[in-house]
TrEMBL record:
Pathway: Lipid metabolism; fatty acid beta-oxidation. In the N-terminal section; belongs to the enoyl-CoA hydratase/isomerase family. GO terms for molecular function: (3S)-3-hydroxyacyl-CoA dehydrogenase (NAD+) activity; delta(3)-delta(2)-enoyl-CoA isomerase activity; enoyl-CoA hydratase activity; NAD+ binding. It is found in: Peroxisome. This is Peroxisomal bifunctional enzyme. GO terms for biological process: fatty acid beta-oxidation. It comes from Pangasianodon hypophthalmus (Striped catfish). Its EC number is 1.1.1.35, 4.2.1.17, 5.3.3.8. InterPro entries: 3-OHacyl-CoA_DH_NAD-bd (IPR006176), 3HC_DH_C (IPR006108), 6-PGluconate_DH-like_C_sf (IPR008927), ClpP/crotonase-like_dom_sf (IPR029045), Enoyl-CoA_hyd/isom_CS (IPR018376), Enoyl-CoA_hydra/iso (IPR001753), NAD(P)-bd_dom_sf (IPR036291). Monomer. Keywords: Fatty acid metabolism, Isomerase, Lipid metabolism, Lyase, Multifunctional enzyme, NAD, Oxidoreductase, Peroxisome. It catalyses: (3E,5Z)-tetradecadienoyl-CoA = (2E,5Z)-tetradecadienoyl-CoA; (2E)-hexadecenedioyl-CoA + H2O = (3S)-hydroxyhexadecanedioyl-CoA; (3S)-hydroxyhexanoyl-CoA = (2E)-hexenoyl-CoA + H2O; (3S)-hydroxyhexadecanoyl-CoA + NAD(+) = 3-oxohexadecanoyl-CoA + NADH + H(+). Residues 299-471 form the 3-hydroxyacyl-CoA dehydrogenase NAD binding domain. The keyword Acyltransferase does not apply.
Amino acid sequence: MARYARVKGSIALITLTNPPVNALSAAVRRGIMESVSRALKDEQVKAVVFCGENEKFCGGADIKEFSGSMSGPPLVPLIHSIEAGEKPMVAAIEGVALGGGLELALGCHYRVANTKACLGLPEVTLGLLPAAGGTQRLPRLIGIPAALELITTGRHVSAQEALQLGIVDQVAQGSAVQAAMELALSVIGQPLNPRRLSLRAPVWAPDVDGVCDAALAQVKQRSRGAMAPVACVQAVRAAAMLPYSKGMERERQLMDTLFRSGQAQAMQYAFFAQRNAGKWSLPNGSQWNNTRARDVQRAGVIGLGTMGRGIAVSLVKAGISVVAIETDAKQLESGKKAVTAMLQRDAQRRGVSPPLHLLTFTLSFHQLRDVDLVIEAVFEDMNLKKRVFSDLCKVLRANSLICTNTSGLNVDELAAVTDRQPLVVGMHFFAPAHVMKLLEVVYGARSSPEAVATAMALGKRIEKVCVAVGNCSGFVGNRMLKLYLDQSVYMLEEGATPEQVDQALEEFGFAMGIFKVSDLSGLDVGWRVRKASGLIGPDVDPVKPSRWRLGRRYCPLPDMLCQQGRFGQKTGRGWYLYDSPGSKEAKSDPEIQTFLEDYRRKYGIIPRRITSQEVIERCAFALANEGFRILEDRIAASPEDIDVIYLFGYGWPRHRGGPMFYASQVGLSVVLEKLEHYHRIHPDVPSLEPSRLLRRLVAEGSPPIQQWKSHIKNLRSHL
Ligand SMILES: CCCCCCCCCCCCC[C@H](O)CC(=O)SCCNC(=O)CCNC(=O)[C@H](O)C(C)(C)COP(=O)(O)OP(=O)(O)OC[C@H]1O[C@@H](n2cnc3c(N)ncnc32)[C@H](O)[C@@H]1OP(=O)(O)O
């Protein structure tokens, strides 16, 4: 899996051949080893150039191999043999040089990239560190601070930035391979020791300890509880303090620990889950590779509130013309100002001009007559949305798609008011829509595969991580979220404080606890939904609202907060206190403590101590349990899809893989036992009753998550 050729008389060209990204599988490593040895032996060969097939240098180690028993020549000695070779070795970097790919290039004596190349050490995003010498060679090449930044973030850099940092020696306008061969010819006979990074002394920098300590504090704050960023700092610190061979030992020890950690498994699972989500399938057998998406050149966006603005920005940035509609001139004007400002800020950051010519702002539905697709983003009200949908049918071309950005309303009910049910799908964006990566594409009972394919392709084009899901109340993400929120507020009733619950969740790895997130999103949003669904009405006692509604336990605490005008950050008060409306720093509010104590007294609840373990178990297992029900109901095609939704839409920590992966990692029988335990204590919370699928999987011997899909297929007929 490496091709050897002699070119220009004296150059050995070694081409890595393992499409699509020339990952360093055992076969590729063997191919490189044999080719290097051949080049070193061949007296005609005076220099060696490495490149990758299809203009992609190398995407790094083959991640799939990490989950099996690794065989073939190990990478570290292989790269060492390249560096130690007595002929100049030049890396010709086109496309990507990532992870082990860049480490291979760092083992070469020279590096040439073409203008489109991108380079990086993204191992940290897989729960690992660059363990083929990357943590020792890169600091010796570009210094401690720059290496720390690249290794702890896993950021990709352009060829131009790589040149400025000193990672590459040259950027070629055309072919990097041609340029590398010319460079190779020009350096024949020159001493190689100064080019061998491993021979360089540890890197001196003023106050190395201080720099590393600051980096450590930063990574701990940024990725709570994640081991890999911490290990990356420790390995780079070793490059500053120790000779190369000792630094390599440290790199290896740290990698061993990470490699065996559940976190690395979780993050590698997340890597593949994200890519598999794009390979959607519908219950009728239509799927990503047998359905054609339609081309979308022009789109309409109805409603320029927070969501509509973000959606319009995302579309325009991808080069799609947008007709943006509002019903009232004042709202249209303020929407126009906001969208324009967002595009201008983005363009300024990227040093380009804002694509404002792609935007039309109008009050008239008639301007939509030529669009290929419309995304409705009006207020979350079924009747209003139905009116918009039937109005759209009067002006749209017969073959234009209608998409709704509802966060949980019935897509079939909306489709039923149109003249084109097959062309109606949900596109559930997350706020702010131009920032958040997740898009749930919701297919209804009558949505055509073509409509789903079109929404998925459009989502990909605007750089979203898209997951196709079935139609049910709340779809996947919000259906599960409801139960997570329920558990959180029940724990407040039972004795916890918002601070305790949030702290437990943040220690688990969430960037923000659930109560801080609720304050950020606005408590009035859920209040309105509960009113619309009939959970709150005139028959509810305003003094002592019932804790039992629609046949199950109900916690009125969030409603009571809203009645006090505590809507969260926007009103300066919610579960926490803020200095002023709109400010972001959450402070404990003694009034909330008193409010909770009064509440418990009123209902005769004796508060008890709730541990962090209970918080995590009740929240995470309630989520996973509903995930199992979602799989039973065929609303999600796989546990991976559910996990991707939680990773990209709900801040689930990546080093925990997602709620379904977490359940598999904890052990399905443990999850089952815990749910049985909590359901016994809280029989009035039906969602804690273990799902049938969970019971079945445990009965089947708790297969690994990768096998659930086939078990679900077999089990479904028995359920
Ligand atoms: C028992 C104890 C032992 C402990 C000690 C062990 C020590 C072992 C020493 C190991 C040495 C370490 C070496 C190194 O430091 C480690 C690494 O290199 S880890 C890998 C680092 N590389 C990456 O993280 C890059 C990952 N890939 C990407 O970011 C992107 O794929 C891309 C390269 C930017 C391309 O993006 P796109 O064009 O958008 O394409 P896709 O992302 O859709 O990918 C296409 C296709 O390729 C598959 N793929 C991509 N990269 C890899 C890879 N590195 N390995 C395997 N497969 C890869 C991807 O899954 C897609 O597959 P498909 O979905 O099409 O099937």
